[in-house]
Amino acid sequence: MGRSPCCDKVGLKKGPWTPEEDQKLLAYIEEHGHGSWRALPAKAGLQRCGKSCRLRWTNYLRPDIKRGKFSIQEEQTIIQLHALLGNRWSAIATHLPQRTDNEIKNYWNTHLQKRLSRMGIDPVTHKPKSDAILSTDGHSKNASNLSHMAQWESARLEAEARLVRQSKLRSTEISSSSPLLHKPALAPPGPPRCLDILKACNGVWTNKPNNAASITGLTGDLESPTSTLSYSSTGIGDNSAAFIEFVGNSSGSCEAGILKEEGEEDWKGIDENTMSFRSSSGGNFLERFTDLLLSNSGNRSFSEGCGESDYGDICGSGTGAGASASHDYLEDNKNYWNSILNLVDSSPSDSPVF
DNA sequence: AATCATGGCAACCGCTCCTCC
DNA sequence: GGGAGGAGCGGTTGCCATGAT
């Protein structure tokens, strides 16, 4: 659109930052806050473009950054969230306190991607690379519906990340009177309400009263800013009904723009499959949802990779035959999603912000 | 010891999104 | 409503460190 890049001015320095530059930037932000990034370099006496300064600050100088090796927990979190979100590094980063999106992205590209590949998992789709099996056993249709689910959740998380950004902006303004280390603003007012659907899944799944309560809670105070989930208490007893209700609501809401593009028939398809899931498995839709997702994504291969012992609870008995094996398998599914939910629940009301 | 290959990470680039006028 | 500018995001590049030959 004819807009000139911010860094094309001659005389602006590029490349690695020197300790002196770091010091200048740090000192300026500590005293004044970053304010307008574009104006910052001149005020701070730096021969850099604002963009470069922002990057340096957010990826390196910020005091609340945790550096060093990623823990196994963090690795799992990244893998799980990547399965849901794809390459939305900033959204993933909102669930990993003290890690920057750039760091997560780099870690994914240099470590996790390769590791998943080695384990026979497509790092993009999180499915086993030999996907042919799916198309022959009738699961492919279900899998595509899962993909719709994932898209929906993904879109929602994106919206939530946007909200986080907005609130960050707002609090940056507010905190501009007391510069720096604004106990940052990135953090939304409470724990991120992402993955509401997964919470719901979880509740349905375990069928525990507590979880049921948490689901009903979604209708009220648990509501995410962007969430349009609406669960009735009767939905607990009729899981798929609850799910259908949620689908209907979402399609008429803020995410409608995205979802509608898929067409009404797609959603009808989901409803039909929702029903078919129930009848074919004797379980509920959500159970089948996770079941399928995991059978398509990593469980088998994670088990294969258990020798690396990096995957703790993700590694289980895998696809072993027999009732007990399938029970373990379901347990693994629960663990997998529980770990996502736990991470969301426990994630930072004090999450780092800059 | 020298050279080459590979891995890891910081930084850049280009694009999109959002806000303001 | 539309354009301009600022900010943020994701992909990519380039440099440096380390390991292999």
TrEMBL record:
<dbReference type="InterPro" id="IPR001005">
    <property type="entry name" value="SANT/Myb"/>
</dbReference>
<dbReference type="InterPro" id="IPR017930">
    <property type="entry name" value="Myb_dom"/>
</dbReference>
<feature type="domain" description="HTH myb-type">
    <location>
        <begin position="9"/>
        <end position="61"/>
    </location>
</feature>
<dbReference type="Pfam" id="PF00249">
    <property type="entry name" value="Myb_DNA-binding"/>
</dbReference>
<keyword id="KW-0539">Nucleus</keyword>
<dbReference type="GO" id="GO:0080090">
    <property type="term" value="P:regulation of primary metabolic process"/>
</dbReference>
<feature type="domain" description="HTH myb-type">
    <location>
        <begin position="62"/>
        <end position="116"/>
    </location>
</feature>
<keyword id="KW-0238">DNA-binding</keyword>
<dbReference type="GO" id="GO:0000976">
    <property type="term" value="F:transcription cis-regulatory region binding"/>
</dbReference>
<keyword id="KW-0804">Transcription</keyword>
<feature type="domain" description="Myb-like">
    <location>
        <begin position="9"/>
        <end position="61"/>
    </location>
</feature>
<protein>
    <submittedName>
        <fullName>Uncharacterized protein</fullName>
    </submittedName>
</protein>
<dbReference type="GO" id="GO:0051707">
    <property type="term" value="P:response to other organism"/>
</dbReference>
<keyword id="KW-0677">Repeat</keyword>
<dbReference type="InterPro" id="IPR009057">
    <property type="entry name" value="Homeodomain-like_sf"/>
</dbReference>
<feature type="domain" description="Myb-like">
    <location>
        <begin position="62"/>
        <end position="112"/>
    </location>
</feature>
<keyword id="KW-0805">Transcription regulation</keyword>
<dbReference type="InterPro" id="IPR015495">
    <property type="entry name" value="Myb_TF_plants"/>
</dbReference>
<dbReference type="GO" id="GO:0005634">
    <property type="term" value="C:nucleus"/>
</dbReference>
